[in-house]
Design brief:
- Helix 2 packs across helix 6 and helix 8 packs across helix 9.
- With 443 residues, this protein is α/β, with parallel strands linked by helices.
- It has a nine-stranded mixed beta sheet with strand order 4-3-5-6-7-8-9-14-13. The chain has a four-stranded antiparallel beta sheet with strand order 10-11-12-15, with no helix packed on it.
- The chain contains 13 helices and 21 strands.
- The structure holds zinc ion.
- Zinc ion binds next to loops.
Length: 443
């Protein structure tokens, strides 16, 4: 009942006015959030069990009677995982007619995940995203350019939906080489840029030599960014850089930074976030339930991202909206960096047939200045030549993972090679294939 009243008030009284929503945001009493979440959660369970073959089957298998479920915790060990999305036909999840489709850049497996939405859902996402951008100072008179990658990814569509609400002038540059971007954006007087972090660093290096232009702010998405790198780019551009955090599964948006630049505000009315397997410091895996989606809702989806809730209230107008801390890492072995979303599997398909190396290898992602370096630690077989191994690896990246090769040509990361004698890399029973050695740089 409460959630219905809130939705009606939302639709008819507040409507689509972004400034009005932002003005009202500080007056949303935090105490109503859990009540609305619970009501919407129960309604969602009824919805998916009547429409989604996947959830109907899974609830039955798990012996769950949804009539007795009040909150996400009542579902115990019931979760939806990335594996579920990969191993079941997307149609099994659908509860409504899909109109927009996206795909994750899956590198933990050779199967990509497909995520579907309706246009209405995209528009709703834009309305809520617009409030976050308004909170950062974005106004209709601002001039926006984005250099997001449009291939199967929904973050640029989230941005476009938000700009539809705000009415800013907008040009899509897409992910072209930063030098070309630099030349082509001249004359437009853009004062807000939406970009990916690794790409921004290359652009910043060009601008350092050739000059920057006045900006209101820069917004980044798609990857994490270390605080040191953020400070470096902020100093060069003399502006603030804000980060967004999302997944394809959430239409590119889970939370957004505010002027405080500390944590991502989440939209508790549409996304029910939980942190599971918490360590003593409060960090654990983020699990979320989409509370308002009609086409492909997800119940307790395991994000694999490690974060925690920030307890202290924020100083901005969104203080009623809880904040998630910056992502600390992934619960599986995936590593996000300038080369792409990496996993051990990603490198297996590169290194498995390179002549002259043993089956033992390791890849380290290290930070060199502001760049990611992908360091291949390989055991060189007797009489093999290091040069031909290097060329073998590089040519396989070029041929088999063109997206990564493109990032390499854009100078978003560098290669390094270290060679060892056969049998020396492995010290224990298991050899860790992929190690993110930039961890400390995130803090
Ligand atoms: Zn805030």
């Amino acid at each position: 009942m409460l959630s219905k009243i809130a939705e009606l008030a939302d639709d008819f009284l507040i409507g689509s006015s972004v400034p009005l929503r932002a003005r009202l945001a500080p007056y949303v009493p935090a105490s109503i959030v859990p009540k609305i979440q619970r009501e919407k959660f129960q309604r969602l369970l009824r919805y998916v069990s009547s429409r989604s073959p996947f959830y109907r089957r899974r609830f039955k298998e798990a012996g769950i009677d949804i009539r007795g479920v009040r909150s996400p915790e009542d579902l115990g060990e019931f979760f939806t995982t990335a594996r579920d999305l990969r191993e079941n036909p997307v149609e099994e999840f659908l509860c409504g007619r899909p109109e927009l489709g996206f795909q994750t850049i899956g590198t933990t497996s050779s199967t990509n995940k497909r995520i579907y939405f309706s246009r209405r859902e995209a528009a709703d996402m834009g309305r809520d995203g617009a409030i976050g951008l308004y909170n950062l100072g974005l106004r209709p008179e601002d001039r926006v350019v984005d250099a997001f990658d449009y291939s199967f990814w929904n973050a640029p569509f989230t941005l476009r939906a938000a700009l539809d609400r705000l009415g800013c002038f907008h040009v899509t540059a897409a992910k072209i080489p930063p030098a070309e971007f630099y030349d082509r954006v001249k004359g437009y007087s853009f004062n807000v840029m939406f970009v990916e972090p690794s790409w921004l660093i290359v652009l910043t290096e060009i601008a350092r030599v050739r000059g920057t232009w006045p900006l209101k702010f820069i917004y980044t998405g798609g990857e994490n960014m270390s605080e040191a790198t953020r400070r470096y780019a902020e100093a060069e551009w003399k502006t603030n850089i804000y980060m967004g955090y999302g997944q394809t599964e959430t239409f590119g948006q889970i939370g957004t930074e505010c002027p405080a630049q500390r944590g991502y505000h989440v939209d508790d009315f549409n996304l029910c976030c939980e942190i599971i397997d918490r360590a003593e410091d409060g960090y654990g895996e983020l699990v979320y339930t989409t509370l308002s989606r009609q086409v492909m809702p997800l119940v307790r989806y395991r994000s694999t991202d490690i974060t925690k809730f920030l307890d202290e209230p924020c100083t901005c107008v969104l203080r009623a909206a809880r904040r998630l801390a910056k992502i600390r890492g992934r619960s599986d072995e995936m590593v996000n960096c300038g080369m792409g979303n990496l996993s051990p599997w990603f490198f297996e398909r590169l290194l498995d047939d390179v002549p002259g190396i043993t089956r033992d290898w390791q890849v380290g992602v290290v930070r060199t200045g502001n760049h990611d370096t992908i360091e291949f630690r390989l055991e060189l077989a007797d009489s093999a030549a290091a040069d031909s191994v290097v060329e073998g690896v590089r040519s396989r990246v070029r041929e088999r993972i063109p997206d990564s090769w493109r990032n390499y040509e854009l100078k978003l990361f560098e290669f390094a090679f270290r060679f060892a004698s056969p049998g020396t890399l492995r010290s224990g029973r298991k050899l860790r294939r992929l190690i993110d050695e930039r961890t400390r740089a995130w803090e």
